Amino acid sequence: MTIPDDLHTALRPEATARGEPGPWETFGPLTPYLMRDGVSDLFLTGDGVLWSDGGSRGLHRVDGWSADPQTARRLATRLIARGGRHLDEATPFADVRLGGGVRVHAVLAPISTSGAVISIRVPSAVAPGLHDLVRGGSVTTADAARLREAVAARTNILVTGAGGAGKTTLLGAILADARPDERIVLIEDVAELRVAHPHVVGLQTRQPNLEGAGGVGLRRLVREALRMRPDRLVLGECRGEEVLDLLSALNTGHDGGAGTLHANSIADVPARLEALGALAGMSEIAVARQTTSAIGLIVHVERSPEGRRIRGFGRFTTTPDGRLTVVVGD
Fold first, then answer.
1. Euclidean distance between the first and final Cα of the chain, in Å?
2. How far is residue 114 from each of residues 28, 50, 135, 177, measured CA to CA in Å?
3. Which of 66, 115, 302, 315 is least buried, going by the fewest C-beta atoms within 10 A?
4. Distances (CA, A) of 34 to 62, 182, 328
5. pLDDT of 28 strictly over 90
6. Residues 6+ apart with CB under 8 A from 153
């Protein structure tokens, strides 16, 4: 099975006899497609069509499957409720993590212009190491050796790439090479990272309740993580003003850290960091100085028809006028 053991247990018919959510109660008619070998994503579009991604076929439409608008809406609200959140007209979109690390994102109409939209990300059954990625062809032997050297040297690493390019998978494999006596603290919006390491502490954000209270954001988690004596501080994804806290932390003796960043190409990374820094009130010069000091290696990944691959490496430097730029290949 491609799904983790704890999720597989919840999907078995005997789970229902124990009073646990059974297969049709948990994921409804999507359950058989979640259990297919190699599936990494399921997508229900607003017109009721189901798409599956992963394995040798890549992204493809599931023939003979459809859902009417009412069924799709009920399925979306039920899945989000399983994750402890509410989906309705007042809160038309939500993101939750279910058993086994399955991530579900749903959007209701009219925010979705056609109908209820559901996106499901299925984690790998195992946390792959660099040797697994080499065997699978997504990482070359030379690239794996370079990454192992960076981990051993406690270089701060930024993994970049577009959505679905394999940033999280690669980051987890890199971190698995850390020494077993090191303490890794993971900070994520929704927990996705799987790291085959004996000492991992995971923190994830919490959305506010219906009254707007109780929310815990990434910036708060970064500050809390610094009090937990991490040997390696890892931010699953930089997407906002928390970049200030991360760069500050990595500039104060927290070597061996890592994170991911959405960027279409390695050349786009400086502009993305400047944009995030602006959200935190940082000037372009401040972003450049903090980044060049904090991040020692950029690893850019991409997804092509041939699969997910490391596209290249780079390092940060500055232009004559003090702006952030990237030297590719170093």
1. 39
2. 21, 14, 42, 45
3. 66
4. 12, 35, 39
5. no
6. none
Q: Could you tell me which of 292, 297, 302 has the C-alpha nearest to residue 323?
A: 292
Tens of pLDDT, residues 214-261 = 889 888 888 899 899 999 999 888 888 888 888 888 887 789 999 999
Q: Which CATH class is domain 130-328?
A: alpha beta
Nearest CA to 308 among 163, 112, 98? 163
Say what the pTM is.
Answer: 0.81
Classify residue 234 by burial, with Cβ atoms within 10 Å: 0-12, 13-18, 19+.
buried
- CATH 3.40.50.300 location in the chain: 130-328
Rounded CA-CA distance 178/175 in Å is 5
Q: How far lies 320's CA from each of 165, 272, 275, 317, 325, in Å?
A: 33, 20, 20, 10, 10
Residue 41 pairs with which residues in a beta bridge? 53, 121
Number of helical H runs and strand E runs in the chain: 12, 14
* Number of CB atoms found within 10 A of residue 48's CB: 16
Chain region(s) in the chain for CATH 3.30.450.370: 5-121
pLDDT tens, position by position, 7-21: 444 444 333 333 444
Tokens for 279, please give them.
């959200």
At the topology level of CATH, where does 5-121 sit? Beta-Lactamase (3.30.450)
What are phi and psi for residue 132, nearest 5 degrees? -65, -40
Q: Is 131 exposed, middle or buried (0-12, 13-18, 19+ CB in 10 A)?
A: middle
